[in-house]
């Protein structure tokens, strides 16, 4: 029996990682990557690629409704933006590869345009956080840097 796409996506998203620690215990909540984080990011990318051929974009809708950008993708990006290890670099790149199609401009005939536009504005607003902008800047300058000869 196949699960509906929303359940499959939510299962993948729950395996990305999550916040640990609670204010009651005196610990600051910090994001911890799941064991299969990179594979889950790649799975989401595959779903988005298939979703690109669909007119109503169910994958983008489910990801938006489940707040995966603020709840998982940006915390993962902030955690891996330094690229200290090869795994961190791969996870960071996979995360960026998901953020790009999630923030593409909408076409005029997009179904559910008002809902999708609201999500798009929420995504763009999330990028305005100081820590997120700094992380994106450090990633881009590292990736686009040309060694001095």
From TrEMBL:
Residues in coiled coil: none
Pfam families for the chain: TIMELESS (PF04821)
Principal localisation: nucleus
Single biological process term from Gene Ontology: DNA replication checkpoint signaling
Residue ranges constituting the Timeless N-terminal domain according to the UniProt record: 30-148
Gene Ontology CC: replication fork protection complex
Gene Ontology MF: a single term: DNA binding
Localization annotation: Nucleus
Keywords of this entry: Cell cycle, DNA replication inhibitor, Nucleus
PANTHER family documented for this protein: PROTEIN TIMELESS HOMOLOG, TIMEOUT/TIMELESS-2
Protein name: Timeless protein
Protein species of origin: Thamnocephalis sphaerospora
């Amino acid at each position: 029996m196949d699960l509906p796409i929303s359940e499959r996506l939510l299962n993948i998203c729950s395996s990305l990682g999550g916040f640990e620690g609670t204010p009651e215990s005196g610990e600051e909540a910090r994001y911890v990557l799941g064991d299969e984080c990179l594979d889950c990011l790649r799975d989401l990318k595959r779903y988005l690629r298939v979703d690109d051929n669909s007119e109503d974009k169910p994958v983008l809708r489910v990801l938006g409704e489940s707040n995966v950008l603020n709840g998982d993708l940006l915390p993962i990006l902030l955690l891996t933006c330094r690229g200290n290890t090869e795994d961190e670099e791969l996870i960071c790149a996979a995360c960026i590869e998901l953020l790009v199609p999630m923030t593409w401009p909408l076409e005029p005939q997009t179904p559910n345009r008002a809902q999708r536009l609201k999500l798009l504005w929420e995504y763009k607003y999330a990028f305005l956080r100081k820590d997120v902008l700094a992380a994106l800047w450090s990633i881009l300058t590292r990736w686009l840097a040309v060694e001095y000869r």
